[in-house]
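Appendix B, Record 12. Input sequence as logged:
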Amino acid sequence: MASRAAKNRAGKRTKQPYVGLLVFLAIVVGVLCAGGAGLWALGNEWLKDLPDYTDVDAYNTAQKTTVLASDESTVLAEFYVENREPVNWDEVNDYVKKGTIATEDERFYEHGGFDLWGIMRSVVVNLMGGQEGASTITQQFVRNTILLDEMNEISFKRKVREIYIAVKLEEQYTKDEILLMYLNTINYGNGAYGIQAAAQEYFSKDASDLSIVEAATLIGIPQSPTANNPLENPDTCEARRNVVLDRMRSNGVITQEEYDAAIATPLSDYLNPTQDDDSNNGIYLYPYFTSYVRQLLLEQYDQNEVFKGGLTVVTTLDLRVQEAAEAAAATKRESMSDEYDVAFTVIDPDDGYIKALIGGRDFQADQYNLATQAYRSPGSSFKTFTLVGALEEGVSPQTMVDCSSPANINGYELENYNGASYGTRTMASAFAISSNTGFVRLSEYIGADRVAETANRMGIETELPANQSLTLGTTEVTTKEMAQAYATIANGGTAREGQAIQKITDRNGKTIFEADTTGTKALEPEIAYAATQVMEGVLTNGTGTQAMPSCGQVAAGKTGTSENWRDSYFCGITPQYSVAIWVGSRTEAQMPESLTAASVFADFIDRVMEGQPHEEFPTAGQPTYRSDVYDANLHIGSGSYSYDGDDDDDDDSDNDGHYSSGRNDSDDDSAASGGTSHGTSGPSTGGTIGGGASGGISGGTGGTGGEIGGGASGGGGDVGGGDVGGGDDIGGGGGDDVSGGGGETATDPGGGGEASSAE
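Logged structural output:
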C-alpha cells in the first residue's frame, strides 16, 4: 500500500502538547454546554469501542461485497465502486499535493489533526454567507476509512471519536504519510477512489503527469463527488475547479499567469475519460439474477454499505436449477428469431426462494430484466385466480358454465379464441380449454373484486382493477409475481414472497439479515388441492399438453396469451417448483402463434428433474361445495335457462335451450370432465374435456377420441382435432398452444382455442 511506502520515508511526526489539550477543552466545552459532569463519563464511554486505528492500512481500501450462490461457495458477483490504484509519494505531482492542502486544509502542516482555529474561521465564513468546512485532512481520512461505518451518522459522539483518532494518527504518522493516505483513499466520483484511479478515469493519464487544470479539477471533486462529477455535471465541476484554482493562486501554489490560463480552459478541452468495457461491474455469473440482488441490496442499505461495506450475501440461486433454466431458454431461443426472447422465474414453493431467474438473452446488450422489471399481460394464466376464488365460494369443478361464443355478459362483449363456441361445460372443462366467456361469467358470479383480492392474497403485488377483463389477464404483471402466486397452490396454501437473498453478514461476520420463510396462510389446503387437480387437466387434456414433462413428474399449470399475440405465458407447478415463463418481444411486437411458452416448462422440468426423486402434490380433503350455485342470467349452475346461441338477449322466458348438469362417468381426478353436446356427434371413446354422453362439441361422424370433438377421421389434437391428429394444445398439427392442423390457427369450433382478447 502507498502508506507503507510512505512510512519508510523520513518525516517528522507531529508532537504538539497543546493538541491533546485542545481536544480536552473541546470535549469539556461540549460537556459544559450539554449540562454537566454526567456527560463527561458518557464522553469517555464513547471512546471505549473504537476500531483499531493503529493499523491504518487495514482501512485504506473499502471492502467489496461478495455475492454467493446458495451453496455458499460459488462467487456470483462482487459489488464495489472503489476503482483504486495506490501510488507512492513521488508518483503524485506537486500541484495535487499543494493544491489539496490549499483547498481542503490550509493549516495542515501546523495543526495536530484537529484545528480549533479552522473551526472558528469556518463559523465566521459561514455566518457571512460563504461556505467552508471545518474538518482537517486527517479528520476526513478518519471519517472515510476508520469510521466508515459511522460516516452518515451526525452526532456529537461521532465527532468526538473522529477528532480523537485524528489526533492519535498525527502522533503515529508524518504529515506527508497522512496526506498520501488521504490521496490514495478519497472518493473522486464515478467509481474512482484515489488520485491515480481518478487521473486514469477522467484524463487517461497517471497522477504524476497531471497539468494544473487537471489537478484542480480532481481536487474539487471530493467535496461532492456526485455534484462535481465532470462526466455527469460538467458545469458544476468547472465552477468548483475555478474555486480550487483561486485557492491555489492565493496560497502561492500557482502564479497569476498560470491561474489566468487555467481559468480560461474549458473542461471539454482536456477531459479524456477511459473507456470501460466492463459494464457488469463485478458481475461474473447469471447477471440478470445478480443485478436483481444488487437492486434489492440498494433498496435496503446505503450505497456505501453495499459497495464498500464488505458484506457477504448468500443468495437463493441454485446452480443446478439455474443451469436447467438456462438450457431450456437457450433451446427455445434457437427456434425463434432474435427479435423474441424468453424470461422466467423459478421459485421453491416450500420457502419462497428464487432458485433460478432468466431475464433475457444478453445482459451486456440489454440490462433490462424481463423477469422482474417487465410488466406484461399474463393472459389466461390469470384465470387461475378466478378458479380459486370460485372454489372458495363453494363452486364445484363440476358446476356447469356456459362457454358459448360470442357473448354479451352484463354489457361486456367478448368471444373465445377464434370465435370457438364450446356450449356448456363444467368449470374444470372451461378452465382446461380456457374459455374466455365461461370465466368472465364466473368472475361476474363471484365478483371481480374477489378475483383481485384472491390474486393479491396469493402473491400478486400489482394493484389490480376489479373489472370484467381482469380474469383474462389484461393487467400486466411480472413473472416473479406469477411464480410466487402459483407457489401458494403448489405448497398447499401458504403465500410467501419470492426471495433472492437467504442471509447477509457484515465485514465482521455478524449476521445482519436472514430471510423469513414463514409465509402467510392464504388458502385452505382443500382449496389448493382442488385447484391443483383442475390445473392438472390443462396439461393432460387442455391447452397445455406441450407443457407436460416426459420424465413422469406430476405437474399442473395454465397457459396464457395476450391480445394480438404479443405475450405468451405458461405458469406451471410441481411439488418442487413454481415456474412462470414468458415468451415475447421486448418491443411488444406481435409474434407468430407458434411461439409459446408451454414447451419451455416441459423442457425445464425434464432437465431439472434428471436424477432427482419425483414427488406428489400435498393432498387434502375435498372442499364443501354448495348445492345452490345457480345464476340464470350468467348461465351458471344446474337448472333450466333459455339459450339461443346469442347472449345479447338473456330473456329467461325464451326456452329455446336447456341447461343441464352433465357428468362424465370417468373417475378422472382432474375433474376436467362432463359436458353436453351442442351438435350431432357419433359415439366417442373418451373425450375427457367436455366428454359427456356424446363426447364433446362438433364431433364428426365416428369421432374416436379428440378430447373436444373429433375430426372426420377421429384421433385429433387434444382440444379439437384437425383432419390429421397428433396436434398440440388446441387443435391438431404441430403448433404449440393454440393451433390447427399443420401448426395453423384452428378455424372451426372443433379446432378449439381461446379468446381473441386473451388466451
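The radius of gyration is 35 Å.
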